[in-house]
Amino acid sequence: MGTSAMEFEKPLIELERQIDDIKRSSLERSVDISAELAPLEQKLKALRVEVYQNLTPLQRVQVARNPRRPFTLDYVRLAFTDWIELHGDRAFRDDPAIVGGWARLDGETVMIIGQQRGHDTKENLHRNFGMPHPEGYRKALRLMKLAEKFHVPVLTFIDTPGAWAGIGAEERGQSEAIARNLLEMSQLTVPIIATVIGEGGSGGALALGVADRVMMLSNSVYSVITVEGCAAILWNDGKSLEMREKAATALKITAQDLIDHHIVDEVIAEPPGGAHADHESTATSLHDALIKHVDELRRLKPDKLVRRRREKYLRMGETDE
To answer: How far apart are CA 153 and CA 145, in angstroms?
Structure first.
């Protein structure tokens, strides 16, 4: 799979184009070009590693927002079996920005809940660009309580710029729906594992993020606000590259930043070129990490699980004088 047209990937795109041209020419002339092709492919592989090891925080934001990255339903297809989607909050309507349902992870039944964006404009409009309404969070809560009833682990996938802030969402109690999820997730008696697979923005992300284990893909980001919003508030300039880069750096939004600050528990390495370059490999890494954490958390009694989850969040932000 080729890389996308982000500015910092232009050297990769040019080299890929050269390789494609050589391959096309060899087919037309029926000539063996393996000796010529091998060093170029090796160079491309090395360049991918180099580029992605040295991304700035703002560049990681761009990667996290890439529409070619795998989304929740892609991981459902690649890493799980026996998917049965469940719909609706039993109060207003179904929100396509959050998907959820039963699935099996290596034979064990789990409840999957995740934000879903679109790979194209039509799907993004249907999914509201991954920005849930309050009924989406109420659907998520309904499914969490259903999982608790049947003693099934909850796996959440975070990928949203933030909760929808439209008038209708506010009228239907967006802030209450998010706050209710925070409260209920803190008390849920089954294992919860949250994974940031793309952009985790604000309370809209945190509403699925109170968990026993929080993981991030290596090119995902997790923040209290978008870099544009932060730059606009602090420096009255949310558009310039300089201010967006400054905000991205100050916010400490990358996976490594959040590991260092003990906000997340594990970083799942993406393949060279990012998750959008190899969906299958990324899904395999996620699958293996989920199995490990589910096995560990299954050994804990419900009361200990809840107590450790509470202690985990109370420790965040502690400093030594």
So the answer is: 11
pLDDT recorded at residue 3: 40
Residue 88 lies in a domain: yes
Asked if the structure places residue 226 within a domain, the reply is: yes
| Interatomic CA distance for residues 132 and 124, integer angstroms | 12
Q: What angle do CA 226, 116, 171 make, to 5 degrees?
A: 70
What's the number of CA atoms in the CB half-sphere (13 Å) around residue 7? 8
Sign of the alpha-carbon torsion through 273, 274, 277, 278: positive
Q: Mind listing the pLDDT tens digit for each residue in 87-132?
A: 999 999 999 999 999 999 999 999 999 999 999 999 999 999 999 9
* Predicted pLDDT of residue 16: 79
Identify the pLDDT of residue 5.
64
Looking at the fold, whether 26 and 65 belong to one and the same domain comes out as no
38 has pLDDT over 90? no
Is the Cβ–Cβ distance between 273 and 217 less than 8 Å? no
The structural domain count of the chain equals: 2
Measured at the CA of 264, the angle between CA 248 and CA 68, to 5 degrees, comes to 60
- Cα gap 29→227, rounded to integer Å: 50
Decide if 2 is inside a domain. Answer: no
Domain encompassing residue 45 = 7-54
CATH number at residue 145: 3.90.226.10
Over residues 145-174, mean pLDDT = 97
Question: By the 8 A CB rule, do 173 and 144 touch?
Answer: no
Q: Are residues 103 and 214 in the same domain?
A: yes
Query: Which of the four pLDDT bands, split at 50, 70 and 90, describes residue 60?
Result: very high
